[in-house]
Amino acid sequence: MNAPFPPFPPRIADVFRHPRAGITSRSIAAIVGGYALAATTSSFLALALPMERAQAVLTGMLLAIVACACAALWAFATRSALRAWLGIALPALAMGAATVWLGRPA
Questions:
Q1: Looking at beta carbons, which pairs linking 80-83 to residues 24 or more positions away fall under 8 Å?
Q2: Long-range contacts: 23-27, Cβ < 8 Å, 24+?
Q3: Tens digits of per-residue pLDDT, 5-16?
Q4: What is the C-alpha to C-alpha distance for residues 106 and 103, in angstroms, rounded to an integer?
């Protein structure tokens, strides 16, 4: 009788080919990556928007909610779990780096 999961996959890429592993990976990408993207979006926009600080923070927080929802949609709309992770992690890293750069005193 064949087991539904092989005990040791020959390659790590084979793990993500299994439907359950792909859904689990995409779900984690949507939850954790969406939160990271929302946090970096909020911080970046609070520093980058040319308006009063309170309004910039509020606008950044509102747009971060949209970014989190888009990350969840992106995680399940792509062809692979790897693309889902990259499509969420790269913008989050870019905005995080830009936030650090904008937050440094002159």
A1: 80/16, 80/22, 81/16, 81/21, 81/22, 81/25, 81/26, 81/29, 82/16
A2: 25/81, 25/84, 25/85, 26/75, 26/76, 26/81, 26/84, 27/75
A3: 655 555 656 655
A4: 9
CB 45, CB 56: distance < 8 Å = yes
What's the rounded Cα separation, in Å, for the pair 4 and 20?
Answer: 11
Contact 46, 53 (CB under 8 A): yes
pTM, rounded to two decimals: 0.79
pLDDT above 90 covers what percent of the chain? 71
User: Could you tell me which of 29, 13, 34, 43 has the C-alpha nearest to residue 85?
Assistant: 29
